[in-house]
Write a structure and sequence with these properties.
It contains six helices and no strands.
């Protein structure tokens, strides 16, 4: 009998250590889980704030795009006004002599401010629509720059040749109005682009913070699984521990001729019954269950 008592005591001691180990592991994983929940929630809160900032910047961008459209409308009206005045002046001028023919007998079109402006406007519209990409983009930008320089030079030459007539003064005013409208378009477009770039930066930050939150959530699931596994092992250890304790108690009762600590046995039986039926015990009840011998 002493051999059985010694064996039971050894097994009881081992199981008691195991139960303590699994309880501590479970509690450690639960603490880690709480930390990860807090970190994940912080990242998610930052994601929500960044989304708000991105949405606000998107609204600013849309407002600036609307301003660009309005400014372009004013510029188009000013351009149309310049064309109308120029056409009127052209009709008042005497008919120009026909141009000389080129080497192959073809009549070469004279380079005029109107032809340069038409080409400039055409290339500018094509560029805005994204029709020129890759290597061709650089060529078009260079051509626009050259055309702009030629237009400015030709305007200066025309200003020197223009008379002080009321019609020429009207044309000068119309050109000034067009230039101012064009400058307004460029400024509004730059502001819209800046708002768009900032919105993209906020969107990138949203993606970064969301990935961090997802990473913490994945860690959280792992720690919860580890905590649940340690808790299951703890429960199994308790059941094994109390099986040995019941056998040791039965042996002592048989030797004494009567049961010992009836109140404690009733209490531990109640707790074990709850545990075996699947009910959840509090941490204090589980620790009390482990202390019973």
């Amino acid at each position: 009998m002493n051999d059985f008592k010694q064996l039971f005591e050894e097994r009881r001691s081992i199981l008691d250590d195991k139960a303590t180990q699994y309880r501590e592991e479970r509690d450690s994983w639960n603490e880690k889980t709480k930390e990860l929940v807090s970190q994940r929630n912080e990242f998610n809160a930052e994601v929500r704030e960044l989304i708000k900032l991105s949405d606000q910047q998107k609204q600013v961008r849309e407002q600036m795009n609307q301003v660009v459209r309005e400014k372009k409308g004013l510029r188009n009206e000013a351009s149309k006004k310049v064309s109308e005045i120029r056409d009127k002046l052209r009709t008042d001028k005497p008919e120009e002599k026909p141009t000389e023919r080129g080497p192959r007998g073809r009549r070469e079109r004279p380079i005029t401010l109107q032809s340069l402006q038409r080409e400039f406007n055409r290339l500018e519209r094509e560029f805005e629509r994204g029709e020129h990409t890759g290597k061709n983009e650089g060529k078009v930008m260079k051509r626009l720059k050259d055309l702009n320089a030629k237009i400015r030079q030709m305007k200066k030459e025309q200003e020197l040749l223009n008379t002080e007539s009321s019609e020429n003064q009207e044309l000068t005013a119309a050109r000034k109005e067009h230039d101012e409208a064009h400058q307004s378009v460029q400024e509004a477009a730059a502001a819209a682009q800046e708002a768009h770039d900032l919105m993209i930066q906020w969107d990138q930050e949203v993606n970064k913070q969301r990935e961090r939150a997802n990473s913490k959530h994945r860690e959280l699931r792992n720690t919860k699984q580890e905590a649940d596994k340690a808790h299951r092992f703890y429960i199994v250890s308790l059941r094994c521990l109390h099986s040995i304790q019941d056998m040791m108690r039965a042996r002592r009762s048989a030797e004494a001729g009567e049961g010992e600590r009836p109140a404690a046995r009733v209490e531990v039986q109640d707790l074990m019954s709850k545990l075996m039926s699947g009910d959840t015990l509090t941490t204090e009840e589980l620790m009390e269950l482990q202390r019973f011998d």
